[in-house]
Amino acid sequence: MSDYLSDAKKAKEKLAIVSDSFCLAKWQQVSLHLTTGHTNSCYHPPLHRIPVEPLSTNPSALHNTAHKKERRKEMMAGVQCVECQYCWNIEAQGNMSDRYYRSGEPWAMQSFDNIVLNPLADVNPSYVEVNFNNACNLKCSYCSPQFSSTWHQEVKKHGAYPTSNPHNDPEHFRGERRPIPNKDSNPWREAFWRWWPDLYKDLKHFRMTGGEPLMDPNTYRVFDYVLENPKSDLHLNVTSNFSVEDKLFNKYIGYVKRLCEDEQIEHFMQFVSLDTWGKQAEYIRYGLDFEKCISRVEQFIKDVPRCSSLTFIITMNNLNIVNLKKLLEYILYLRKTYTKTYQRVWFDTPLLYTPEWQSMQILPNSYSICLEECIEYMNDNLDEMHGFKDYEVLKMQRDLAWMIKGTDNVERKRADFYKFFSEHDRRRKTNFEKTFPQMREFWNECRYHATS
């Protein structure tokens, strides 16, 4: 059994001592969306607004909001928070949820005793994920103007997509949901930089997302601070599409090499968002240059050989699974080629819930064979160092179980699938049927529901 799975199982037993709903991530992990002033603990609960007023005297209120403190009380009392339904659903199926995996990691479990003794005290989280800026060169099909400036430009020009509930309607991204440009005053970003020196002392993992962090000056401000204030126990992480212009990418790689070669940090994790293979990957994540992305993956692994790893973030949706095995084959190749003394290449397979029409649950059951083949391939290549891990197989099996479970209002969601992607093809000059020939029958069924 891998240490990761073993730690999760130990965490399951230890969390139960407190309550049946206790999760350390509600204290020790935070996602901060500073472009709109929203937060959640891990990435599963819905975002909630960060009140501005407390920030002037307590910038840690970016994380320690009144909303989170109420959820913490519920967890201590054994109440299953409504916003954490993702994990309750997984556990109800008898599977290991992210509540156990997250809580079992050292950055979370190290604070177990202090949290149990002082559950309502303000805390500095040890795992922080920040979105400073929505500047992005991609328009991923499941993204929105909150996280992509190019999405914002598109809907500003063309309006909402004609799904049953107008998708990415520009009117929705006004007021509290309006992304604040980096050049404008932003009380949440300003509070973050006031909090940063104190937060930095307790950090174990710091991850920058976007938008596209390689396009964001705040990314390089963090790098400069770390170079001036080395932290030997820090895991520094960045998520990228690896499709930015060459000049920017070279600047970025230069920084990462300095951080890792001089051992300014414990480890650098490069997250790369890539859902499947080839033209289908480019369709899902519009604007992606697949060949450039793959080339830079190997460049990163070779150019930054010390204190670094790379993780593929594979968002599990109904378009990525038909060609997913090819991506897994590539991951296996990378592991066998570049892993020598420690694991250099990782991947995760989070489930996509929204938009509903891109969920795997609206697919006919016949598509389960795609994941079954992936699971068989992974089982045939199990190896702790150069192959697949037991917990990676378990997560894929979990994804398959969730897919087979299905959903309600399937006809409406399939109709929206056709409405969205036919409009996607019109606006972006793409062609769904040519790109996904394996899904032509499903496409025609969705067309029927949309037009009948």
Note the topology:
Elements: H1 3-18, H2 25-28, E1 29-33, E2 38-40, E3 48-49, H3 66-76, H4 85-92, H5 98-103, H6 106-109, H7 112-117, E4 127-131, E5 139-140, H8 149-158, H9 187-202, E6 205-209, H10 217-228, E7 231-240, H11 246-261, E8 265-273, H12 278-284, E9 285-286, H13 290-303, E10 308-313, H14 324-338, E11 345-348, H15 368-380, H16 390-405, H17 410-428, H18 432-435, H19 440-451
Parallel strand pairs: 1-4, 4-6, 6-7, 7-8, 8-10, 10-11
Antiparallel strand pairs: 1-2, 2-3, 5-9
Helix pairs in contact: 10-11, 15-16, 17-19
Class per helix and strand makeup: alpha/beta
Low-pLDDT runs: none
Strand order of the largest sheet: 3-2-1-4-6-7-8-10-11
Mean pLDDT: 96
**CATH fold type of the largest domain:** pyruvate-formate lyase- activating enzyme
Sheet bearing the most strands, described? 9 strands, mixed
Question: What is the CA–CA distance across the termini?
Answer: 52 Å
How would you describe the shape? globular
Radius of gyration: 22 Å
Count of runs of 4 or more consecutive helical residues = 19
Order of helices and strands: HHEEEHHHHHEEHHEHEHEHEHEHEHHHHH
Q: Can you tell me the CATH class of the largest domain?
A: Alpha Beta
What is the tally of beta strands? 11
Q: Approximately what portion of the residues adopt beta-strand conformation?
A: 5-15%
Instruction: Give the full name of the CATH homologous superfamily of the largest domain.
Output: pyruvate-formate lyase- activating enzyme
DSSP helix fraction? 40-55%
Name of the CATH architecture of the largest domain: Alpha-Beta Horseshoe
Count up the domains.
3
